Amino acid sequence: MSDSSPFPFIYLASQSPRRAQLLDQLGVPHRLLLATPDEDAEALETVQPGESPRDYVQRVTALKLDAAVARHARRSLAGGPILCADTTVALDLDILGKPQDADDARRMLARLAGRTHSVFTAIALQNGSQRHAALSVSDVRFAPLSPAAIDAYIAGGEPFGKAGAYGVQGAAAAFIEHMSGSYSGIMGLPMFETAQLLDRAGIARGYACKTS
Ligand SMILES: Cc1cn([C@H]2C[C@H](O)[C@@H](COP(=O)(O)OP(=O)(O)OP(=O)(O)O)O2)c(=O)[nH]c1=O
């Protein structure tokens, strides 16, 4: 483990409220480092031809961190480690991003119904000149879903802004027959891997239950 971080907080470069909530759960003081509208965050999330979901999610996370490091420098902010993440749902080798609209959400949920998919969440932390990264992989099996169940779920608004058009932490929990891996990873920030990364970088956590 490296020396303790001199910083009393980290920057979370993510607009996802779930990630902030999970970081709170780990007892890590943080400030948001968000992109401005002129930074085209969506442009980072373009899949390259033939790219596997595993490669994609790690590449996008590294790009998000590059952008966040540049943003931090541009704004002349006080020092502090910077954390980024990306979550991707993959069915076979197809990447399911966030749905564009209700029809897109309906198509994604109909594909996921009655099948097992994978959820990849990559995380990356910049601490001074050092970069640490980790990957969480989970498998989720959905029960068969009727068109009416899918429509009712979409009407509730939950699919929007979420990879694969669902949130494990919401009403979609009722769709899930089985899962293996990391619940928090599926939700957007794998707590075990994040704690390990912070520990490796010497960053204090409020509830510092060390795993090694
Ligand atoms: C599968 C799944 C995803 N999600 C969310 C987590 C992420 O917010 C989102 C995936 O999109 P991301 O592109 O990973 O993250 P984001 O655009 O919300 O935030 P940022 O890029 O600023 O960090 O899907 C859930 O909340 N629950 C779930 O069960």
UniProtKB/TrEMBL annotation:
<keyword id="KW-0963">Cytoplasm</keyword>
<keyword id="KW-0378">Hydrolase</keyword>
<dbReference type="InterPro" id="IPR003697">
    <property type="entry name" value="Maf-like"/>
</dbReference>
<feature type="active site" description="Proton acceptor">
    <location>
        <position position="86"/>
    </location>
</feature>
<protein>
    <recommendedName>
        <fullName>dTTP/UTP pyrophosphatase</fullName>
        <ecNumber>3.6.1.9</ecNumber>
    </recommendedName>
</protein>
<feature type="site" description="Important for substrate specificity">
    <location>
        <position position="169"/>
    </location>
</feature>
<feature type="site" description="Important for substrate specificity">
    <location>
        <position position="18"/>
    </location>
</feature>
<feature type="site" description="Important for substrate specificity">
    <location>
        <position position="87"/>
    </location>
</feature>
<comment type="similarity">
    <text>Belongs to the Maf family. YhdE subfamily.</text>
</comment>
<dbReference type="InterPro" id="IPR029001">
    <property type="entry name" value="ITPase-like_fam"/>
</dbReference>
<dbReference type="Pfam" id="PF02545">
    <property type="entry name" value="Maf"/>
</dbReference>
<keyword id="KW-0546">Nucleotide metabolism</keyword>
<comment type="function">
    <text>Nucleoside triphosphate pyrophosphatase that hydrolyzes dTTP and UTP. May have a dual role in cell division arrest and in preventing the incorporation of modified nucleotides into cellular nucleic acids.</text>
</comment>
